[in-house]
Automatic annotation (TrEMBL), chain B:
TRAP C4-dicarboxylate transport system permease DctM subunit domain ranges (all copies): 13-426
GO MF annotation list: transmembrane transporter activity
Protein name: TRAP transporter large permease protein
Job description of the protein: Part of the tripartite ATP-independent periplasmic (TRAP) transport system.
Gene encoding the protein: dctM_3
Alphabetic keyword roster: Cell inner membrane, Cell membrane, Membrane, Transmembrane, Transmembrane helix, Transport
Residues that span the membrane, as ranges: 6-39, 51-74, 94-114, 175-196, 221-243, 249-268, 288-307, 319-339, 367-390, 402-423
Organism name: Granulosicoccus antarcticus IMCC3135
Record-linked Pfam families: DctM (PF06808)
From TrEMBL, chain C:
Membrane topology field: Multi-pass membrane protein
GO molecular function: transmembrane transporter activity
Tripartite ATP-independent periplasmic transporters DctQ component domain location: 6-136
Function: Part of the tripartite ATP-independent periplasmic (TRAP) transport system.
Family according to the record: Belongs to the TRAP transporter small permease family.
Organism field: Granulosicoccus antarcticus IMCC3135
UniProt-recorded name of the protein: TRAP transporter small permease protein
Amino acid sequence: TELRLSHQWSTNDIRHKVAQMVADEVAAADVDLDIKIFPSKSLFPATEQYKPLSRGQLDMTVLPLSYAGGQQPAYNLTLMPGLIKNHDHAARMNDSEFMQRIESIMAEDDVMVLVHGYLAGGFAGKDKCISSPDDVAGMQLRAAGKAFEQMLAKAGGSIASMASSEIYTAMQTGVLDGANTSSSSFVSYRLYEQVKCYTPAGDVALWFMYQPLLMNKDAFDDLNEAQQEALRAASANAQAYYLEEAKKEDAESVRVFTEAGVEIKQMSAEEFDAWRAMATESSYKSFVEDTPDGQELLDLALSVQ
Amino acid sequence: MDPLTLGALVALITIVVLFSGVSVATGLLIVSAGFLFAFDGLRSLELMPEVFFGDLNSFALLSIPMFVIMGSAISSTRAGADLYEALDRWLTRVPGGLVISNLGACALFAAMSGSSPATCAAIGKMGIPEMRKRGYPDGVAAGSIAAGGTLGILIPPSVTMIVYGIATETSIGRLFLAGVIPGLLLMGLFMAWSIYSTWRQQAFSGALEARSFSWKEKFEILPRVLPFLLIIAGVLYSMYGGVATPSETAAVGALLCLLIAIIIYRLWSPKSLWVVLRDSTRESVMILFIIGAAAVFSYMLSSLYITQTIAAAIGDLDVNRWVLMALINVFLLVAGFFLPPVAVILMAAPVLLPVITTAGFDPYWFAVILTINMEIGLISPPVGLNLYVINGIAPDIKLKTILLGSLPYVGCMILAIILLAIFPGLATWLPNLVMGDAI
Amino acid sequence: MILIAVLLTCQMIWVRKINNASTVWQTETVIYLMIAATLIGLPYVQRARGHVSVDLLPLLLPAKAAKALSMVTLVAAIGVMGIMFFYGLELWLVTWEKGWRSETVWGPRLWIPYLAMPVGFGLFILQLIADLVAVATGLDTLHTDERKH
Ligand code: NA
Ligand code: NA
């Protein structure tokens, strides 16, 4: 049996490695299951993968679930400022009632999770540090995700949308004063050449994005028991690897930025709370308004300790 | 069927279908649908509109219609004639001065327009009749404009560089800068050839009369070139001065061109504005349709695992990197004979780029090489857009004469490719200077 | 529509630079305008013979065979546009029924931009059919005349 897995990342990316690991282990299990990976958007544009997945035209993908927030508003909770504090907290999230609810919503679209995983990110400013909401007033900012845009706007920043690949030039020419993106993007786009101060994901971080390896449920059900078992076993190993590597990426970004002479400013617990208050009045509020059972889902997510 | 055989079959059928007179975009869709249905079943066919829409759903693509508007707004005014006239008055003493001023005008115009046919049309409308009137052979007159027009996609802004940037996720601003020096180099080579061939012709016939202009005449024309400089300065400022991202800059340029066309050249009748918008809509729709169709085509290639297999095969070729580069050049050249630049870049760039970078070549340098190959395609049959534009401007010059006239310029381009291979710094020095070392 | 897109993009840069304000809805609007203009422009450009094509085979073939070939390609074109139209329509219906929105702060309903696909490809089919009829009845001499010089 051949399964097709599409994703948008390059082959050096941790998310590709997670997919590759599942594919390799399944192949090694010798259960007549072959996972063919199409990396770097070679099959579908980045944001156009959930639809074919749910309609069975694609078997597997690794993607930020919030990309499908337009189809299932509840998914927007998987990229919400301040819901998750650090990677261990994120791992506890995966076993929570909240995640069960999200998975039951996926099941409506005929989608299931094989590997849970989060990546974290931080903020960087061209001329000054961005660690508390007071810092962003009057700045031109690029944020990753709509909930972050809403929160930053609430804090007095202005939002310019652009692809992460454009941040470097935009900062260089002065279109942007600051940006929020993932730890790995900060490094791979060499933003340390442009910024003065970096606020990484540390003991507390605002930006966590849920990026699971998903599979079409019918495709999974069509497999025989040995194949399903091999897939589950490989996924469990990949999930452990994913968590470790995600932590390493944050540390690696701090190392690279420090080496480049960029000032590192950790976010304090008080600043985290101030951001969360800001988010409560902006992104949380608009999420609850737009989503059926929004308040209940939000409370469930906030209740995970 | 193994993917390589399948790939050969796709290539063969694509060529036949594209030669059948069907439009390029439609042809690509037909081939894609056929192969998807035959080898991948219905579930892939269902996805065609989604892939098409998803690919066009990109902000960077928006700069294409914008740069097209820039070109057609300006080419509908007297601006091209003014520019050309000014250069002519200043360069009459040089042997082959008229040809040189035409090429200079092409280069300057190219700095505003992102498209080669637009450059060709704008300068050619004025330049070709003038050159013929003053005794230049038809071949030189038509050839120099056809070749000069190709500078439109090398000197920034450039529609094809944008397409390359999108397809390979490279920085568009950096790509633009990489094209500047090679563009000027090409212009220089074109000029050198023109002087040489005019000098040779003169020795035979002496038909080229010299004219002279007074200093007064030389200076009074200068203000009429100002609008050009204004547009170029405006675009450069907004791109590198922190006003807008490269993809947004196109809108600034388009608006500037429209405003200048309306205010300075009094293009305010709704009818003539309508013509500008109609022509640019026509060209943009054509390009964007090819882009969407090429997305479906590359989805098909990828879905049938052809792209991946070919890339792996090229990667496994155990040859010297320069042999590899030469092979790639031949491939691009042949593809350029048949297909418009945008289509070639969309299909080839994503496949070739990993191979290129693995072999240690710079992706920005390669973009310039690729673009010059595409320029050759623009002035070579059977699909040579510039040839047809010239044919449209000067219908009484035979296509064959145009073609023979532009052949020496093809030689100049091949020389430029060789020079770039020996001195890669020609392409990489300026972007590194302005934007720091490449990522 | 493209003109509106130009003006909107400039307005966006202006708002960001001068008023230092957020630009949320402009980016998306201009992209959708461009897509709509492209799709709805297809039939017009077909009529104006604005799509690039390579007439190599028809030039090599005798007139009768060339005519047959052009009918075959037109039928194939109609077929493939039919696929684009049909699945485009289906996709549009899904976005409409499920109330899908785009994943941005502005979050417009996706059925609006997706509507351009069935409309554009539908009109394109009609134009292609008109072309087919013209070729079949021999009205399309303009095409062949142009090529002679
Ligand atoms: Na140009
Ligand atoms: Na050609």
